[in-house]
Each structure stands twice: as C-alpha cells, then as structure tokens.
Amino acid sequence: MLTVVLGQLISNTATVLIMVPIATVLAADLHVSVLPLMMALTVAGAASFLTPVATAANTIIMEPDGYRFGDYWKLGLPLLLFLTVAVLWVPLLWPFAP
C-alpha cells in the first residue's frame, strides 16, 4: 500500500527502488520467498494511474493534450481494479514458501 501511495507522489520507478530493500529484509525476517514480495512491489509500482507525477509518460502528455491534474483521478481510479486482481494472483503464481 505504501508503494501505491508513494508512487502517486514521486516517480513509480524510484518508489519501487526505495521499497526493494525493505521488502527483502521483510521476506528474510518472515522466512518467506522474496519473489512474491518483489512481484507485489512491481505491480504496486505499475499502479500509478492517479497523478501525472507518477510516470514520465503521464507528465509528457498532460500539457499537449490539455489534461488537468484532476483528470488523472477520473480515469485512473477504475484502473485500480488492476491492483485488486494482481493482489489475488501474485501469491498464486509466486508462492510464499521458500
């Protein structure tokens, strides 16, 4: 959840890179595989649909296409369904067992 929130405020790539060491230590402390946590971080980083700040592509098209900051919320909120589906699929495809 922290990755999704931070990904709206700073670059989604930077957010994932900040969270990788935290997820790695968390996996080691919990004695689980790091793969599902890394995939969850990747998906959460990709779920940067709510602001133009999150990705360079969103920022680049904002001015030429005449988008306002609030337009990203209108289109991005339904796309967060993608995040819900991913939360269900990641543990199935990458189990937590080491």
From TrEMBL:
**Membrane-topology annotation of the record:** Multi-pass membrane protein
Statement: the UniProt record of this protein carries the keyword Transferase: no
Q: Name one Pfam family in it.
A: CitMHS
One GO BP annotation here?
transmembrane transport
Q: Which GO terms describe its cellular component?
A: plasma membrane
Where does this protein reside within or beyond the cell? Membrane
Give the residue spans that cross the bilayer.
37-60, 72-94
- The superkingdom of the source organism is Bacteria
**Matching InterPro entries, A to Z?**
Cit_transptr-like_dom, DASS-Related_Transporters
Sorted keywords for this record are: Membrane, Repeat, Transmembrane, Transmembrane helix, Transport
The residues covered by the Citrate transporter-like domain are: 1-94
Q: Record keywords: Zinc included?
A: no
Supply the name of the protein: Citrate transporter-like domain-containing protein
